[in-house]
Specification:
Length: 460
Amino acid sequence: MSSHTPGQDDVVLHPEGVSKRFVSGRRTVDALKDVSFEVGRGRVSGLIGPDGAGKTTFMRLAAGLLRPDTGTMQVLGLDTEHDALELQARLGYMPQRFGLYEDLSVQENLDLYADLQGVLHQERQARYETLMHMTGLGPFGKRLAGRLSGGMKQKLGLACTLVRAPDLLLLDEPTVGVDPVSRRELWDIVYQLVEQQDMTVLLSTAYLDEAERCDEVILLHEGQVLGQGRPEAFREEMRGQVYRANAPQLAKRTLQQRLVGAPGVLDAVVQAEGVRLVLQQAETPVEQAVAGIEQVQVEAVEPRFEDSFVARLRAQREGDAPAVEGMDVKPPGQGQGGDGAVIRVRNLKRRFGEFYAVNGISFEVGRGEIFGLLGANGAGKSTTFRMLCGLLPPSEGELGVAGKDLRTAAASARARIGYMSQRFSLYGNLTVRQNLNFFARAYGLGVSRRRSQMDRVWIR
């Protein structure tokens, strides 16, 4: 793919041969390897890649907070090594964990960052009004930052970053942990900044659906650039290689497993409407991929940006992906109990004083199902999970997990549940294997089983 190359006057950010290495004890990590590309003025560019791709390292280099080991980084016509202070006066940088002061109000946080950024007092009120209107935080000026929802905190962090209007805005994964509604609102704000204030934005994200909202994207994986261009150009690369498959007599997960190992198949993903099938090449006959599957129905569908990204990753590490062994794929409904429900919730309620965090929800989950509990920040998802794990008693309703009533047998139910909370409590002073060993002991695994389970999940 030929990437877009802006004219010299339009280039806002230009890394050339940039590499960055970190050394921790005996371990060396190449966070970035010979990275080169250009970002043009007046657009939203996306730095796209999974966790560990090097996105945050790149953002810190672009903000002049780190020095490259090799190569040069030109931002707004300035060298990030020699002109860091001048550069930082002209750009805005919002890191993943923006430093809001939770015991200060929304307005007090804005005042603090205006002081830090040297915004003149006579200029503040007009700027505040613009930012509060843009983020929808106008009615919440006196509320403590610690009492805002996750999405509102992100919008406040963005407002604090923008109290002085920058020429370039760097946003490091601003939508992580934010509900879909707030994600959409944050994107609306980003495009308002570009269109109304002639701002240039470089935004990093691991969400591939967000990549399609960018004017152009830079694909980053394990510190290397895999490509640059407009999202639609990446989609067109995959035309003729993407299909939807259904087989009435097979569960979708069983069909997926049949397709994953078929010749010529690049990827197979379970979706609500069937299994999304991606072929390695447009010339590969789809009949070859579904051969031997009875009554299978296949239809061509529009490619997505995600298909191209997956194809590039597979091409880079072809042959390295571990085979899936011993997976027992069962259709939903083959669970414990007569009706097959592993989780059963009836009219569940949880009240805190006069406030209902959960108010009368009911659902069932069968064995083999992946059940999604969706909702905006503050909808009651975490409260429901804590009740399902026996960590919080319900105010009303019935709650059963793995055949156990959580009102009367919470301890025995917890022994059969794995729970990963929003802020999972890893121990930073222990190694990966020591953390695994600790949690295996906490779950009461014997020596032999502990070793086999740790070997099963161990990532080398």
